[in-house]
Structures are given as C-alpha cells and as structure tokens.
Amino acid sequence: KQAAAESAKFTGGKTAAKAKVSIERPEIAENGNTVPVTLSVPGVEAASVRRLALFTERNPQPEVAVFTLGPLAGRAQVATRLRLATSQTVVALAQLADGGFWQRRVSVVVALAACVEGG
C-alpha cells in the first residue's frame, strides 16, 4: 500500500508502537471536503515529541501533513482539516525525541466524498 510506504519513509523503517497518540475526528463526516482532525500525545511533555504526521489509506496522496514541533511548542498537539476521497482509515504517527515512534489508526466514514481523481 502507498500509505504504508509513506509511513515507513517517515519512520525510517522503524516499527511504530500502538500507543499514546490521540486522533480526535468525527466518526462520520458529512462531507469529505473538510474533516476536522486534532492530533495529540496526551500526558507527554511537548519537548518529548519531535514530529506528528497524518496519513490516509485511500486518498490519491497518502501523506497529508507532517508537523515539526519545537522546544517551545507548549504541548504536543496540532489541528487541521483533511480532505478524504472516501471512507477510510487515518493514521497518525508521532516521532519522539528518543528516536521511537508511536501510532494510532482510526476509521472515518465519509457520507460525501472529496478529491476523487478523474471525476
């Protein structure tokens, strides 16, 4: 899968543990053109998290965003909006200061799709 390949690029081929990354999103999105998403790593100091990334499994371009957090970030949290082609799994990855990676996968059901190629 293209999303798995992009995720592997982000982690440098390292395995990401399924832990501590939170993805807040609507379980059912009325419209795939604008799906609000908040990524966070609760209970962890912001300085412990270097980057947060978002990937989608069924969009034409799976890497949605990579956020780099500096030492003055305050907390490991970012918010954005996704454009989803169809109902699918969204993957969040966190790169930690110690070189490790954490991940979380969630499903989003899209009632009206966006970013469909050739249409």
- What is the succession of H and E elements? HEEEEEEEEE
- Major beta-sheet overview: 6 strands, mixed
Bulk shape: globular
Q: In DSSP terms, counting alpha (H) and pi (I) runs of 4 or more, how many helices?
A: 1
Percent in helix: under 10%
Number of strands: 9
Q: Please tell me the overall pLDDT.
A: 90
Low-pLDDT regions: none
| Percent of residues in β-strands | 35-45%
CA(first)-CA(last) distance:
23 Å
Task: Output the radius of gyration.
Answer: 14 Å
Structure classification: mainly beta
Main features:
119 residues; mainly beta; three-stranded antiparallel beta sheet; 1 helix
Describe what you observe in this structure:
The protein is mainly β and 119 residues long. It is 8% helix and 44% strand. The chain is built from one helix and nine strands; from the N terminus they run H-E-E-E-E-E-E-E-E-E. The strands form two sheets. Strands 1, 3, 5, 6, 8 and 9 form a six-stranded mixed sheet that branches. A three-stranded antiparallel sheet has the order 2-4-7, with no helix packed on it. The longest helix is centred in the first third of the chain and has 10 residues, at 2-11. The two termini are 23 Å apart.
